[in-house]
Amino acid sequence: MKHSLRFIIAAALSLSLLSLTGCASSSASTSGSASSAAASASASGAPAKVTVGTLATEDILPVWVAEEEGLFAAENLTAEVMVFQSATELIAGVTSGTVDFAMTDPMVTASIYASGTDVQVQWVTLGADASQGRFGIMTADPTVTSLTDLAGVPVGVGSNTILEYVMDTLFARAGVSADQVMKEELQKLPVRYQAMASGQVKAAALPGSLLALGESAGCTVVADDTTGENLSQSVMISRGNPATAAAFARVWNAAVAKINAAGESYRALLVSKATLSDAIAATYPISTYPTASLPEQAMVDSVLTWMKAKGYLAQGITYNAANGTFAGR
Fold first, then answer.
1. What is the CB neighbour count within 10 angstroms for residue 190?
2. Stretch 205-220: mean pLDDT
3. d(Cα 153, Cα 143) in Å, to the nearest integer?
């Protein structure tokens, strides 16, 4: 499952993350749920308001394009995009009802559902196939040329994250047994990147923007998830109002068509909104994006199985690919 998240090492990294993040950058009122407000507006004939929570990541580029080019108005919607500084704060925005849509990943979605908040997957935002989005394991040590060189060696990663899932799967693919996969707990991506770049850890699991930044500085990607079986996806989730979700999906599709037809014309927008480092601003690849469709059963099932095995889910949560819902809480 690809995704996403993304991710900031002070000025040097220029917040070049594709994962985590903290306070919202916009100032929406938190009184009452966003979905209730949208439903009321729709019933009155006024434009329904779509409040979208996200991290500063490439996964949400179609929403920024739709916002900039006025595509929401065609579906009688108004939009507010709230950019959060951490995954924890984004989750809080979902559970409190501050946002009615959020860009996240299936792992976070399952955790939100397990904690008692009803959420539904609406569509894949990035990672419909292995070529979209990128997670990988990077090193600054020239003697490390394969994952087998990292067997028994601590690798920087954050526990209970999609990057840990991808890392475990990449090691398994390489034939490294689970008891030889050693982990150094480094939740903050900027800290993790710096620890890898300075040699404090031999390697680190990182998202695409930090992999690109590392490559520009001479570091090496030992393995990534852009080939073979698709491992990671980011998804748009919601907690209500199917009619608004359907209209939002049409806006998404219109923006995707524009990006996929002329991606380079949106480079400045991506660099600004995803706060990409100057070192990669001109060269970072602009992804193609999928039209709105649900993640396949097998994609989510593999994540849920891994979460249960790791102890991150106490319950046997199940996913229904027919409608994007979870059950078993």
1. 19
2. 95
3. 13
Using the predicted structure, report yes or no on whether residue 208 has a pLDDT greater than 70: yes
For residue 292 the two structure tokens come to: 């709105």
The C-alpha atoms of residue 149 and residue 156 are separated, in whole angstroms, by 15
Question: Which tokens in the block code for residue 214?
Answer: 């590392």
pLDDT, tens digit, 9 for 90 and up, residues 165-193 = 999 999 999 999 999 999 999 988 899 99
pTM of the predicted model as reported, rounded to 2 decimal places: 0.82
Residue pair 329/126 in contact (Cβ under 8 Å)? The answer is: no
Closest CA to 2 of 204, 297, 229: 229
Residue showing tokens 């899932």: 165
Q: What pLDDT does residue 316 have?
A: 86
